Amino acid sequence: MSMQPNIDFTLSTAPQVYDWLRDAILRGELPPGTRLSETEIANQVGVSRQPVREAFIRLTADGLAEVRPLRPQRGTYIRRISVSAVLSARLIREAVESDLIRMLAEQADDRLLARLDQEIEEQSVAVARNDAETFVRLDDRFHRLLAVATGQEAVWEVLEGLKSQMNRLRYITARTFDIQKLIGQHAEIVEGLRNHDPGLAEAAMRRHLRELLNDLPEISRARPELFIP
């Protein structure tokens, strides 16, 4: 990988190596089928092989890597994106975030609305720069802010743990499709909050989270080598 991790050697290194590799997988810097070498990564990071091995175990448990035991392909590889996991995560997100946005519509104040407007402005800047990676991070921050505003940050953390496969697809679609439409959908969500209209806010959220259902078939047809059922 081209990016060098920023490792704090005063802390446990295995979680840091895991976070670094996981981020590279989600962003597509380590695409499906890439072979992971304990020795090469340990040398690049400047650690022993043990924390790298621990990171590999966690990535495998997450469904992001797989161990192939038989020669000539024996080793650890980046797993292809699971379509079923993507669809499950999307369904759970829609159910949870639709409830959250209904709750928030009744209590959204001017301070929150101003913050959300600022978030949308920053997203627009990222799109204008054609910076898909920054947009995806800002998109996550927007949705997390909604959860935090309802007092449900812990719920967002649960969702974050479920949507690894979905996030891999989001980085691909952000580089492939016109993501300006996603900003418009965010604006519709905020408009529902501004009007204190739970129905409008929920409908906007559901439309937004269903956009992936339009993108996934097209991407899977164009890049079948990236996916498994």
UniProtKB/TrEMBL annotation:
Keyword Calcium among record annotations: no
InterPro entries named among the record's database cross-references: GntR_C, TF_FadR/GntR_C, Tscrpt_reg_HTH_GntR, WH-like_DNA-bd_sf, WH_DNA-bd_sf
Presence of the UniProt keyword Hydrolase in the record: no
Pfam families: FCD (PF07729), GntR (PF00392)
Domain HTH gntR-type: 11-81
SUPFAM superfamilies: GntR ligand-binding domain-like, Winged helix' DNA-binding domain
MF-aspect GO terms: DNA binding; DNA-binding transcription factor activity
Recorded coiled-coil stretches: none
Domain of life: Bacteria
Keywords recorded for this protein, A-Z: DNA-binding, Transcription, Transcription regulation
Protein name: DNA-binding GntR family transcriptional regulator
Native source organism of the sequence: Paracoccus versutus (Thiobacillus versutus)
